[in-house]
């Protein structure tokens, strides 16, 4: 069976006027229009293609890479709203439909939303939903403290930035741990700072604890070199000044210069730090 909403390896069966017909080992066939065919090919070649339904609800293949795939999240722009629901741009000719019942709040044309794409059992159509919490689960975590993770920033609150971890779990970057400009829709590398007793996950953008000393030390060293070997910052500098100059917390900065000092790479003076 052809898998809607996913890339799959298919075989070129024949070339026709509308395009190439591709097939799988189960005998299913799908059309790849000429505009998506490779520059050179032979019948019998394998090709990776994404399959979805066209405007007439027929399976069609493309070599374009959409911004979202089946059972994934993405930050998409709403391009149209009608009496049935909203339509999102996702990189393909036919837009992704989000019915009203799947909208966390009424969507508006031109606005961007975090959307999850699923296959509707009743219609067999790829469908979007902005009610993303129902597709996340922290019951059985697949991450632990200090793990490197992939995150998608969903929205910002007074507490900090809510994120999706590895496309599976909920997480939060607390406001005091944010030292750079981040926005909804950003995809970033991050780290698990803490797993709480209720399986809530605290996330940071810098490697936490002792593991952050070396990366931050290297970063401070590079900034020192770029500044000519001296920087008017030290362990008594104002935290906001350190954040503005380096984008890291005072705690991380103190750990970094402490590491550099122990290795005798810098001197800590009354008015700043200097490369030895």
What brief labels describe this structure?
276 residues, mainly beta, OB fold (Dihydrolipoamide Acetyltransferase, E2P), five-stranded antiparallel sheet, 3 helices, 18 strands, elongated
Task: Describe this protein's structure.
This protein has 276 residues and is mainly beta. The chain folds into four domains: 7-62, OB fold (Dihydrolipoamide Acetyltransferase, E2P); 73-133, Nucleic acid-binding proteins (OB fold (Dihydrolipoamide Acetyltransferase, E2P), Beta Barrel); 148-205, Nucleic acid-binding proteins (OB fold (Dihydrolipoamide Acetyltransferase, E2P)); 210-275, Arc Repressor Mutant, subunit A (Orthogonal Bundle), CATH 1.10.10.10. The chain is 13% helix and 38% strand. The chain has helices at 213-226, 239-246, 250-262, and strands spanning 7-15, 19-23, 29-33, 46-53, 59-62, 73-81, 85-89, 96-99, 112-119, 126-129, 148-156, 160-165, 169-174, 187-195, 201-204, 230-231, 266-269, 272-275. A five-stranded antiparallel β-sheet has the order 3-2-1-4-5, with no helix packed on it. Strand 2 and strand 3 form a beta hairpin. Helix 1 packs across helix 3 (250-262). It is elongated. The protein starts with 6 loop residues before the first strand and ends with a strand. The model has no long low-confidence stretch (mean pLDDT 93).
Global mean pLDDT: 93
- Let me know the number of strands: 18
CATH architecture annotation of the largest domain: Orthogonal Bundle
Main β-sheet, in a few words? 5 strands, antiparallel
- Please count the helical segments: 3
Class of the largest domain, according to the CATH hierarchy?
Mainly Alpha
Beta fraction: 35-45%
CATH superfamily of the largest domain: Winged helix-like DNA-binding domain superfamily/Winged helix DNA-binding domain
Shape call: elongated
Strands of the biggest beta sheet: in what spatial order? 3-2-1-4-5
- Identify low-pLDDT runs: none
| CATH fold descriptor of the largest domain | Arc Repressor Mutant, subunit A
Counted up, domains total 4
Structural class: mainly beta
First-to-last CA distance: 66 Å
The residue fraction in helices comes out at 10-25%
Radius of gyration over all CA atoms, rounded = 25 Å
**Helix and strand pattern:** EEEEEEEEEEEEEEEHEHHEE
